[in-house]
Prior knowledge:
The chain is of the alpha/beta class. Helices cover 29% and strands 23% of the residues. A 5-stranded parallel β-sheet has the order 5-4-3-6-7. It has a two-stranded antiparallel ribbon with strand order 1-2.
Amino acid sequence: MNNNNNTIYGFDVNLICDFFLNTKRQGPGSPDVTLKALSFIDNLSDTAQIADIGCGTGGQTMVLAQNVSGTITGLDFFSGFIDKFNLDALKLNLQNRVKGIVGSMDNLPFEKESLDLIWSEGAIYNLKSATTRLYDTEAKIICIVSKKGAQCIECHHKDI
Length: 160
């Protein structure tokens, strides 16, 4: 993001937020896709620490929270998305174990080796440059905050 002119890859941030704020999801997918991806995850305990990176307003996060135990932190760059995320968590009575925070996925605010599951639906590709696919950068960032043996789900509509 270019903070000087409030754009991401040339797109006005306010336009992006206004357009997507009232949609259930800010990318491809559905509750069924989330549940199918979740079916590949095992061994999550009641104390699991989960992060949804690039969570948007939390459509998929709320589906996760209704189907797994543990604590879930949603992270998104747009504060309006996080406001809606936290309001929806409250409406679903999930606020005691689901919270959204404003942050950047290229500077994750999680302690080293603290996460049992990292989730991202249609968002983690934002770690890559607009012109270069930097999977190594993505993997390094995720490995730092993941516990040994942690699981990571990155899915896009064509993945499942």
